[in-house]
Design a protein that fits this description.
Keywords: Membrane, Signal, Transmembrane, Transmembrane helix. The structure is a single chain. By secondary structure, this protein is an all-alpha fold. The protein has one domain. Helices cover about 60% and strands about 5% of the residues. The protein has a two-stranded parallel ribbon with strand order 1-2. Bound molecules: 2-acetamido-2-deoxy-beta-D-glucopyranose. 2-acetamido-2-deoxy-beta-D-glucopyranose binds next to α4.
């Protein structure tokens, strides 16, 4: 699921897609170049390519078949030209290897000519995600790719907000407990002080009464 860029529509799909996006984020540490690669991955994971086995885990979908990896590599060379593909996809490749598959070599896209590239269907935001099984290599159109980047940024922001909120609650309880313990200790202390004073007073009155 990829968000539209108007904020009013953003929250519902965001909530629905959070779990899926979480998977994509888990496989992608967040530096700007990784963010670019992660946007391609986020987009790609939602394309129902014909050659992906149905039981492929979500985080390993980018490695399955050849349509997916080809689209993924082409997306990256198109939108993240500064990223070295082997470096950029190391994390995904390692994730896939944990699930018993791996990415093909980047040679997969070595043979593409400019003409062939120009013929590849650019998926528009309105057509995303495609309904039926997709039997061809795809690229996200510019606006769709930007929506994927925007979605990732929104999720990172929410993660940060979430952690910030968690920390506030944590410190609230630490302070609440410290204040509570402090009161108890000062009460105990005051109690023993006043008891001693009472004892001393009683002694004094006893002495005076003699
Ligand atoms: C992914 O790993 C496999 C196995 O180690 C390797 O053959 C392949 O070239 C790697 N793919 C990329 C894109 O780095």
């Amino acid at each position: 699921m990829i968000l539209r860029t108007d904020a009013s529509n953003a929250l519902v799909p965001l909530a629905l897609g959070l779990l899926q996006i979480h998977g994509a984020l888990a496989a992608a540490p967040r530096s700007p170049s990784n963010q670019c690669i992660a946007a391609c991955q986020l987009w790609l994971n939602q394309i129902p390519f014909d050659d992906i086995p149905a039981d492929t885990p979500y985080v390993a979908r980018g490695c399955a078949g050849t349509l997916g990896p080809t689209s993924l590599f082409l997306c990256s060379t198109r939108y993240c030209p500064e990223v070295d593909l082997v470096e950029g996809f190391r994390a995904l490749n390692e994730t896939c290897q944990r699930f018993g598959s791996h990415l093909p070599s980047v040679d997969l896209i070595a043979g593409y000519t400019d003409e062939e590239l120009a013929k590849i269907l650019r998926l528009q935001p309105a057509d995303h995600p495609p309904k039926g099984p997709v039997k061809e290599v795809l690229l996200p159109a510019g606006p769709l790719f930007r929506n994927a980047v925007y979605t990732l940024n929104a999720v990172s922001y929410i993660h940060i907000r979430h952690i910030g909120f968690g920390l506030c609650v944590f410190f609230f309880w630490i302070i609440a407990i410290l204040v509570g313990v402090g009161f108890r200790i000062s009460h105990m202390f005051q109690g023993s002080v006043s008891e001693k004073a009472a004892l001393a007073r009683r002694k004094r009155t006893k002495l005076e009464n003699r």
